[in-house]
Amino acid sequence: MTFLIRTIDFTAAGREIIRDRVLDQTSLTIGRAAENDIHLPDLAVEQRHVRIELAADGNLAVTALGTLGFGLDGRTVSEGAISLSTGGEIALGAARLAVAREGEAILVTIRQVATDEGAGDALRGFALASVLPNKRAMSWLLAAAILVLLLMVPVASHLLRTPVKNDPKGETPGQVVLDAAWTTGALSLKHRSLEDNCESCHVNAFESVTDTTCLSCHADTGDHAAMPRLAKGSPPLSPGDAIQWRIGTALGKEGPLGCVSCHSEHEGQVRTAAGGEAFCSDCHDKLDTRLTDTKLANAHDFGKAHPQFRPAYFASFGAAQPVRAAPGAKPVERSGLKFPHDVHMDARGGAARMAVSLSRYGQPLECKDCHSLQADKIGFKEVKMEDSCEGCHSLVSGRSAGGGFSKLRHGDVKDLAEDLARISSGPRAPVAPRRIRPGQSGTYRADFGRPVRAYIGLSNALSAGGICTECHLPTRGPTGQADLMPVNLPDRFLTSGFFSHDAHKKEKCTDCHAADTSKAASDLLIPDLKSCRDCHLGATAVKTKTIVPSDCAMCHAYHLPSGQWQPKGSAPHYKPPPVKTTVAAIAAKAKP
Q1: Sheet harboring 60-64: ordered strands across?
Q2: Residues 315-330: what's their mean pLDDT?
Q3: What are the structural domain ranges in the chain?
């Protein structure tokens, strides 16, 4: 097949120039790219716009090659056909391609449409453009409106407003008119109630939000450390960051340790994200090189470089405060209790057989039978003897007058002393049968010995082999009376980290706590770093069914009241139990 390409151009004087060229091929491509058979240098034409080829029925098939269509005989289509007997016209941008048969060849005539063609169309008289200002005038008019509404009005209302106190709760309506036009984005979920009151945070115009403004609402938020020490422990700024902070401080920012250096607002209605692993490791990776007196070990990745856990425990009997374990030490807990976990958790032992026989258990003992989570799903409730132990360790002391059973009260030593004294002062056997005191009725009974049975009962209960020493360690009071070691257990063992037991409820307790093999109550059954790394690795670890990428913020928090850090002068997280009067002290006060 032969194509005769005829291009018609005009000179500046209006003289017509005709150029012909012949292509002996089966198809033509038309587009803006130079490699097309017909090159049309027009931005309204795609790089490869149209293909023309001979169809099976003898007509010419015209197909769009890009995303734009083309004009064919006055209609915009993406494909069509041209009959060689009648011919047709293709419109591409400002070019018009007339296609017809000329002898044995197919003639394609290309001409450009005049730029002023259709200018006198009668329909243009009905368009709004004929009565509106030109585009340049409209641009200046809109620019002036923007300046007045979005700049001058907010600035004027700010200068003329009545100064008010900072309102972090957003109760006072905003005083600056149209200030929403200056917002850089939506506020976070916690602060979105303040979107209509910019003055809640922005006290002065064109000044960054200060720490004082933040603390007016977040008064209970504490620093990670004292500001001078935090600055000393922070790594030096890079040259580029140092220049940026010089500019920022000149514009009112409070430096790289201010609130806004870490907390960015106007990022959309999202939750405030915790600092990533790099945020923490910037300081803690080589902390000892900047703070030579620090007791903190370097850390930058939980899976690669993290110090061993240092749980808090009572290292001596009756201590007022717990201490933290030394790095790498094997702490021995002095809780004052005598409790072998392995005996109670042995599925074939005597404790298991007794639990199976009791309706409240019906099976060998498990950790949950004594330990239950608090409402916060983090810590555990105090183990109560009456709820967890008395099912097996009975405190029944005899039969009551009503036909039931009486038992010793647990927890208050004063109550225990009264119960034991009541047992010792019960009815005595008659000295002689039917002997009656003169002048009185009733059988005469008497005990002419010294009233020491109450003391003997106390001594036996508190001494080795007594009922109290089944769980408690016996000792001697200041005057030599039998006594018990006070029970000391910390409220939290890992005081520098956060751990949610509820998040691990699908795991067995013994997967982390070796209670089933512990033979002594002095064993501190807190898991070590290695056991946590079975599942938790650093933030860059690849997540699998068993591996959980874990950054610093998963266990540590930067601010109060999360409890990972305690400012100087504040109340301690651990509060020792109130001092109770010991049994020995009560016995010493008893009258002979």
Answers
A1: 38-39, 27-31, 50-54, 60-64, 79-82
A2: 89
A3: 2-114, 161-273
